[in-house]
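Recap from last week: sequence in, structure out.
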Amino acid sequence: MKTHLNLLPYDHLRGGLVRRRACQWSIVTGGTLVLVLAMGWSQRASYTTMSDQLKSLEVAYEPIQQLKTESVVLRKKLAESRQREAITLRLAVHQPVLTVLGIVSAAAKQCDGHVAVNTLAITRQETANRHAQNRPGKNIVTLDGIADDDAAIARFADALRTGRVFKQVSLRKTGNHEISAVKVRSYSIECSY
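Predicted structure tokens:
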């Protein structure tokens, strides 16, 4: 049984229904908006916390980055220094040919033209010892030529010794030769450095 009767016009009934649905949807939309804002606020708070942590870590990492940069620069300098050292050691081990030629020329000049050098050969003897791998072999200079007499050869060998470049100067052989009806002495001298 009906206890009441609705005599309002249909437009008024429809307006009430629309108002009721609008109110319901505005509550749902408002709740969703509040939820989204709460999540956004939470994300923003975690973002600021993480940003602060990142800044503090960057500040803490800055000295390490500087050390890394310095380490790279020092490694480059060390490599350059090792390269220069290797070049220096190679130059110290292998005396230039021009130096040897100059010493031989100066020794021949001290003999006042009584000694002539026909051939000059430089050979390298490697060490056969396995434990001496870092030690360089010795260089041997072989001088072949002619002289007026044995005294000139002896003065030439002494001049080579007094140059203090060669560790050992030894006369290997001598002989008699005749050049254009002039008798001369041939010689072979080995010098090691």
